[in-house]
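Build the 3D complex.
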Amino acid sequence: MAATPTTVPTSAGPSRPAPAGYWQRLRGGDEAAYIITFMAAASILAITAMLVLELYANSAASRGKFGWNFLFTSTWDPVNDQFGALPFIYGTVVTSFLALLLGIPLGVGAAIFLAELAPPKISDGLTFLIELLAAVPSVIYGLLGVFVLIPILRSIEPTLKAVLGWTPFFTGPFYGVSLFSAGVVLAVMIIPFIISISREVILSVPNDQREAALALGATRWESTWDIVVPYAKKGIMGSIFLALARSLGETMAVTMVVGNDPKIKASLLAPGYSIAAVIANEFTEATGQMYTSALIELGLVLFALTIVINGMARLMIIGADKYKA
Amino acid sequence: MTDLHTLRRKTVNVVMLTVTGLCTLFAAGTLVYILGYLFVHGATSLTWAFFTKLPTPVGESGGGMANAIVGSGKLLLLASLFGIPIGFLGGVYLAEFGGTTFSYIIRYVTDLLNGVPSIVIGIFAYTLIVLPQKHFSTLAGGLALGVMMIPIAVRSTEEFLRAVPNSLREGAMALGASKAKSILTVVIPAAKNGIMTGIMLNVARVAGETAPLLFTSFGNRYWSSGWDQPISALPVMIFTYAIAPYEDWHKQAWAAGFVLLSLVLTVNIIARAVLSSKKHVAR
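Done.
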């Protein structure tokens, strides 16, 4: 064998391009797509941060003057620049609590029926109808509250007083607009939310659970109430907290029926006020820096309140394996 | 004894079935009642002039809300121009480039923004645009509604893109397409129906928003003279007219409520039909 030249071609096969430079990758589109979508995502973060900052910065005058007392005093006197948020916080909490009191049994009951007990066809149809309710704008609920609900409440007021008049909550004159009316409107608004989320959570309970219970001789209701509902409890709680957050921040419907009177009264039949309602009513007519600043601080309070409640709701629903990323 | 026990259990079973059934009936009944009442009152109050005429002064009957209908359209246009691109691109980021800590933060912040009460968003737009400009404007109202659209746009885009099977992406890449090209020409077209439906629902949702407009676009009894001037919107008109003490205005409020609700419900029903009947993602 003759000695073969040992020179080996320096590059075999098709020549590889030099590692693509940043500019080339950008032109290939991947980098550009990444940067554009990243910027959009980052701008959501920026907008949210700006929202918090704007609320915080523009309420500086009020925060500086009243400090924490803002939350615990009940004077609302624009003429003398004295502002306390307590009547509004009270109204917001009372109306939302009332809404939950009426909404939870009805909403969870209906969700249980639709998910577990009703025949699928009826269930699908009714769920469709109820979910449409969730799409109705809140100003329409307000409109119906003013012209439909309040007349109904006026007509049942004597009965209400006869039955519950011994408590301090149903005393005094009733003008139609009241904390009670606002609570009822809110209840009607949050029921579809509770139903549609709770129903989904209940439907996601594994069938083994039901089958095991039924095989052991449980009745339909026993399997539902003792096995399925406890399994779905966290998710149902989550739906309730979401509903609570929504009712705390609800503006239009409440503004139209709550009565707009910044006083703290035990009676639910008396007119009241809520945080969102006072912002809606007085923001445009607020003269003077302190007045506007106080209203913006109310916005900050409302923001903080709903963020905390929403956060709790998410935790519970994620705990219940929903909204899994 | 056992029989009594069984009887009790069976009774509880029937009673609770009935009770929860009644809850459902009540919830659904409320809907039928509400819609029925609104449709009857609204339809009888609705006139052709409602769509063509300006509001009349107090005491003068007739008139319409033509300016509010156009106003709502302009506000929604601005809101869509602002909210949808950010929301859509953000959703693409989460679905296609996600999986990082940053995307977790974005998801969390989006949820947070979604939970912010609409009136607070109104304050935000007010401090951002109305305060420096010193007057109410269409622009501020559009911004407020646009911010409200972002979270839902992100969520629905991400959801529908995620529903596109990975094999499509892999197929495109195997044929040599870059990631950007596969997203643009394969993934997004596959999810197109779902995303468009999501956008329609989103627009329908903010179309009914009133609170963020009260102190941004404010309202206007005449045609708005420009994008930086106050403008009328249908939901705000419903609010103003419903709480006013004039019978004539109440009728107009019912008519406006009827128009608004018909619009919102029609979009919702169509969207649901699209999403449930057809496969909204090509496979």
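Residues 66-319 of chain A form a domain with the MetI-like fold fold (CATH 1.10.3720.10).
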